[in-house]
Specification:
This protein is α/β, with parallel strands linked by helices and 134 residues long. It has a single domain, classed as Rossmann fold, CATH 3.40.50. Helix content is 37%, strand content 25%. It has a 6-stranded mixed beta sheet, sandwiched between helices.
Length: 134
């Protein structure tokens, strides 16, 4: 089974978390029958979507000293076929993603300040559709 990890990376305050929140809302609206297990606090986006037999893990915290490493471990343990997360360009958060590159096809997607968060969320959504079918 091919598994995919989309790592939305960039420097601080460029909209990575906002893009992931927009993606969460898009997944929720497109898959109304999906089972959603929220793993974070109410204002957080840390969840596992179960759509049919496919699991998607999604985490918006990608800052150093965030829960990203813990979330990635949960997503792997839960056998998520697709993982989408925010991460910095280097350091511990990027290293946590690099550690999974033997188990997942990692797609590094850079977030620029000028990119529209909603547009980028739709692009990631389309990328996950292919990964879910493959």
């Amino acid at each position: 089974m091919t598994r995919t990890l989309v790592a939305l990376w960039g420097v601080a305050n460029v909209g990575k978390s906002s893009t992931i929140r927009a993606l969460y809302k898009l997944l929720k609206s497109k898959y109304r029958n999906a089972k959603i297990r929220n793993l974070g606090r109410e204002s957080d986006v840390c969840a596992i979507f179960t759509i049919g037999k496919t699991k998607i893990g999604i985490e918006h915290h990608g800052d150093p000293d965030s829960r990203l490493e813990e979330s990635l471990k949960k997503f792997v343990k839960e056998k998520c076929k697709v993982i989408i997360c925010a991460t910095r360009s280097r350091g511990r958060t990027a290293d946590a993603v690099y550690e999974l590159d033997q188990d997942y096809d990692v797609i590094w997607l850079e977030k620029h300040r000028t990119q529209d968060n909603e547009d980028l969320a739709r692009l990631i959504f389309l990328a996950t559709q292919g990964a879910m079918k493959g």
